[in-house]
Inverse folding.
């Protein structure tokens, strides 16, 4: 690799990781005020996420919404992807296209619609609002990722199974399920991570009554700097890296993201 | 025959719930937005009053601002990312995986946290300003936020990993022997990239530009935290009108305009962009 190429890679890495490195440095500062270079070393701001009642409640709320929405989105997407692939149902394909749309459009549009829908039902600031809103926003991920997994199954394998006497249910159980499970888990992981980090949909559909972590962070930002913010940012970055690292270990990440074998 | 009927029945049963959920949570809400946009705050009845208000107020100007901002950020991001993706797809597979893990982690990181990171970086006590003073580029400490530049930089930061993911499949299929040939014939790496790689990758690059345009059209948090009110995008005004001005009818009209803009881009993307690369 030429020197130009190496320096370009280095500068690009600096642009991407530099800001996060500064946050890392700030998060382990001892002082409450923002100082740079950081003074002292302490993990107290990480402890505060769990010991401070308000921060911990926000964290718990975020986790509950993420788990519920990711589960719902994944289970609702499975039949859509399966019927679109196995039987080529036009209806299932149309449903898949409709399900992907909320993810492609600016989220503020659908959030406003959901807010109007929930208001007309007099559901104000409920937990369920957040779960349903994230479910419809995230359902695109399992639809796309599980479909990818299904398409990677060779049709000839299915035919061989049928020829050898397996009925549809048995083919499904012994061939389709084992080959798609890694993709289902990957999709679930993507949903969890995106839900935990999502702000605007939560703000629009739940508001401040059921405060999730990103909403709490935004509110904290308005009142000025707090080192807890930096420690939350670090925690999220590490969590995201851990989840996608696990995905990379259990599946072929370059292939999942569209690279071809060479 | 019996099994075909059974398969049919189970398809209907298993697809019923997802259909209900998807329609109820995507089609119905958009219908609500549309019908609300035609209503008024008072007893004005059904009409286009909200849209008239749009054309005669600062909101039309802010919409134009959103469009130019989205276009600018998309161009800057794709410009930065295209050479990177080319280099990335030439790396050994382990390095590619590591980069992809990192980029997925960055893509998922809350927009709120990224805005916070840049706020710290551009503030007067830390980060870049200190470096500028130390190197003599600036003489006194002053905060670089809120400003238009801060909004552009942070949005670029948010867009960069998306652009990589859009360009990655096509670049990984690129036949590198063509580039090798040009290099052997004496072209520099920059020249080979500009005259060989870029022309071959026009379509994916256009796809990336359009995808990022839609993404940035919906930008909300960064303009609010790192910009001044005149840097507020259409999306910021939608939340502001709905949640803080209690004017959901006008917010709905603005949302319909944003919907038309992004849907037009999506149609354009399906037409001229790269269809699913697999």
């Amino acid at each position: 690799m030429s020197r130009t190429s190496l320096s370009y890679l280095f500068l690009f890495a600096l642009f991407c990781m530099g800001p996060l490195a500064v946050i890392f440095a700030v998060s382990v500062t001892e002082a409450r005020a923002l100082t740079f270079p950081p003074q002292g070393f302490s993990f107290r701001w990480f402890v505060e996420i769990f010991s401070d009642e308000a921060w911990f409640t926000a964290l718990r709320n975020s986790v509950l919404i993420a788990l519920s929405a990711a589960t719902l989105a994944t289970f609702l997407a499975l039949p859509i992807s399966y019927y679109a692939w196995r039987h080529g149902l036009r209806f299932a394909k149309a449903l898949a296209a409709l399900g992907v749309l909320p993810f492609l459009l600016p989220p503020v549009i659908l959030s406003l619609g959901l807010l109007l829908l929930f208001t007309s039902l007099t559901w104000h600031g409920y937990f369920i609002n957040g779960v349903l809103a994230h479910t419809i926003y995230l359902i695109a991920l399992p639809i796309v990722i599980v479909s990818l997994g299904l398409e990677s199954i060779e049709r000839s394998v299915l035919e061989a199974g049928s020829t050898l006497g397996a009925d549809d249910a048995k083919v499904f159980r012994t061939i389709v399920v084992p080959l798609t499970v890694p993709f289902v888990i990957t999709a679930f992981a993507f949903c969890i991570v995106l839900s935990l980090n999502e702000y605007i949909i939560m703000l629009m559909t739940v508001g401040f009554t059921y405060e999730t972590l990103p909403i709490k962070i935004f509110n904290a930002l308005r009142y000025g700097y707090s080192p807890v913010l930096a420690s939350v940012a670090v925690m999220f970055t590490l969590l995201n890296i851990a989840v996608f690292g696990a995905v990379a270990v259990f599946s072929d990440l370059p292939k999942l993201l569209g690279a071809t074998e060479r | 025959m019996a099994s075909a009927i059974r398969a049919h029945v189970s398809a209907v049963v298993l697809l019923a719930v997802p259909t209900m959920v998807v329609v109820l949570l995507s089609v119905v809400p958009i219908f609500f937005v549309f019908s609300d946009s035609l209503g008024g705050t008072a007893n004005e009845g059904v009409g286009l009053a909200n849209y008239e208000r749009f054309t005669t107020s600062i909101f039309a100007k802010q919409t134009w601002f959103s469009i130019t901002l989205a276009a600018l950020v998309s161009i800057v991001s794709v410009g930065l990312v295209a050479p990177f993706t080319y280099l990335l797809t030439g790396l050994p597979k382990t390095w590619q995986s590591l980069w992809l893990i990192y980029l997925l982690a960055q893509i998922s990181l809350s927009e709120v946290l990224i805005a916070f990171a840049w706020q710290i970086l551009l503030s007067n006590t830390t980060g870049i300003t200190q470096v500028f003073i130390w190197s003599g580029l600036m003489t006194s400490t002053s905060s670089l936020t809120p400003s238009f530049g801060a909004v552009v930089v942070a949005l670029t930061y948010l867009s960069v990993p998306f652009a990589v993911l859009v360009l990655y499949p096509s670049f990984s299929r690129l036949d590198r022997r063509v580039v090798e040939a040009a290099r052997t014939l004496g072209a520099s790496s920059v020249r080979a990239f500009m005259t060989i790689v870029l022309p071959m990758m026009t379509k994916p690059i256009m796809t990336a530009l359009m995808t990022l345009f839609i993404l940035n059209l919906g930008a909300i948090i960064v303009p609010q935290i790192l910009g001044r009110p005149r840097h507020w995008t259409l999306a910021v005004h939608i939340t502001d009108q709905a949640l803080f001005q209690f004017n959901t009818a006008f917010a709905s009209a603005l949302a319909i305009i944003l919907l038309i803009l992004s849907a037009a881009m999506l149609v354009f993307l399906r037409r001229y962009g790269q269809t699913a690369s697999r």
Q: What stands out?
A: Residues 38-272 of chain B form a domain with the MetI-like fold fold (CATH 1.10.3720.10). The two ends of chain B are 35 Å apart (CA to CA). The mean pLDDT of chain B is 87. Chain B has one domain: 38-272.
